Amino acid sequence: MLTVAKLKDSRGGKPYAQPLKVKVCAVGNIQNYQIDSGEKKECVTVGMGDATDAIKGTLYDTSKLKTLTGDSTVILMNYIFKNEGEPAIVITKNTKVLKTGTMEVPQDILEKGKRIANPPPAVTRPIKAVKTSPVKSLVSVKGRVVSEDMTKTVKVKGVDVNVKSVALKDETDSIKVSLWRNLSDSSIVGKYLSITNVVVTSFNEEISVSTTSKSILEECEPPVSQIHGSAIAFEKTELNISLLMNVHDEYATYEVPICMIAAALDCNTEDIETELQNNLPLQCSFILKDSTVEEIISITKSS
């Protein structure tokens, strides 16, 4: 009988009547897409394998999911094999998916099949690094949404699609993110988010990122970090002091609660502006959560 390894050695591009026995390693999430006519379609990535290797399956007939369940063993007939780039078996409504006896598959091949069905997200990179990443590369980002535009409707292949632009900020920089389709639905200003599998784009020499069909948007806890630098200027708001810091010759502002910095400087909150003006620059070590100071480790006058 045909094996996955032998199939991968063939040229592909045509329907195969020769049966292929495989074990389903894992089934990915249903992906929605639109064809040129505007008709909505669904497909699913399935990781499959036998004793020789694992392979990607692209399922366009989701009614067959009741047979292609995780850990099931099946025989495929009248499938299409594509060997352009990543080898893949295309399963259409004309493909026969038949139940059969269980087949043992080595653990390393099972794991490979699972990664094919549910690949790990692109590496999360600081926003400053994203801005120097190659256009069209796939990355993941984290940051706080500091502003958002109104949702717009644009034409994509003649079909109305919703999109919303937001500004995402982390401790290194900020960037525009275009949230497409269902990801544009809710208001997220002020939330700290993880957005996976966004594509780097460039328009009018501005680098931004856009969500893809593989993007997942989730609220998460902002990271905790420590910085040491020189506070050189400030602005007082109702509850905080916004300190402009020089950290290794890079400048950023950090929010410090007025009561916290007043206690560190041993002064009354009413006198904090005068105290800062008389003592800047200050050498500061802070524990940060996002861009807000959670704890003052030390704060001293510059010598």
TrEMBL record:
Question: What is this protein called in UniProt?
Answer: Uncharacterized protein
